Amino acid sequence: MPVSSEGVPGWEGALTLSTPIAYSLRAKEGVYVMGNTNYARWPKLFDARKGEGDSNGSLGLLFGSRMFRGNATFSWMFVDSRLKNVYHIHYSPDLKGRWRLGAGLQDVFGDSNTQIPLDLTNSASAYVVATYEFGGDAFASVGYGGQRFYGYFASASVPIAEGWKAYAEYDTFGINWGVAARLKGLVAGERPAVVTFGYLKNRWATWTIGAPF
Q1: N or C: which end of the chain has fewer CB within 10 A?
Q2: How far apart are the first and last CA of the chain?
Q3: Other CB atoms closer than 10 Å to residue 82's CB: what's the count?
């Protein structure tokens, strides 16, 4: 779900798939999001076949709050069909200009066992990230994190047509890319829902849908 430099979720803003951006949701903003990654190249909904693990989905709620002269985003995610919970926190200080900074902790309690190349006992992943706004709704981010990220990560998003965007990211394990479409009228209010479709490492199909509230 794109997020603007002012912390507003909607169509305008930086878009990424699995890596952080600097921007945080502002107070009283929220997003519903769900998505799926399928390991057979075609999209499916959550675990496609019980016990085989060839498809896996997530469902989450994100909401923003004021904190320490900045904005903080708190995330509560179900990361598989067995309803495993994961909690994230992200903070962005009040800054002006094209550059913004952020920092956070994914998997606060360190027990999700997701992408943990360094320590099999704790998957909590701290990170820092900077996002630059070029203008014309184009953005780029670069950051560094531990555990899940295992080093540097980066992302970029640009508009490609009316109601369409393209995104790409390097998550320290490989390149992910895709497109996003604006869905007007799906939810109440002026801000639309956004659906994405893409590929991880050019091998696995993935999709997401997010709606602000």
Answers
A1: C
A2: 12
A3: 7
Q: Which residues contact 94 (CB under 8 A, 6 or more apart)?
A: 69, 70, 71
Q: Are the CB atoms for 110 and 78 separated by under 8 Å?
A: no
Q: Does domain 30-212 have CATH number 2.70.50.60?
A: no
Q: Which residue has the tokens 């994405």?
A: 196
186: how many CB neighbours lie within 10 A of its CB?
12
What does the pLDDT read at residue 40? 55
Whole-prediction pTM: 0.87
**What pLDDT digit, counting tens, does each position of 135-170 carry?**
999 999 999 998 888 899 999 999 999 999 999 999
Contact 178, 206 (CB under 8 A): yes
Decide: 166 and 177 in contact? Cβ < 8 Å.
yes
The DSSP string of 9-56 is: BSSSSB--SSS--S--PPTT-EEEEEEEEETTSS--SS-SSTTT-SEE
Mind listing the pLDDT tens digit for each residue in 106-131?
Answer: 988 876 665 545 555 677 889 999 99
Spatial CA neighbour of 207 closest among 36, 80, 2, 7: 36
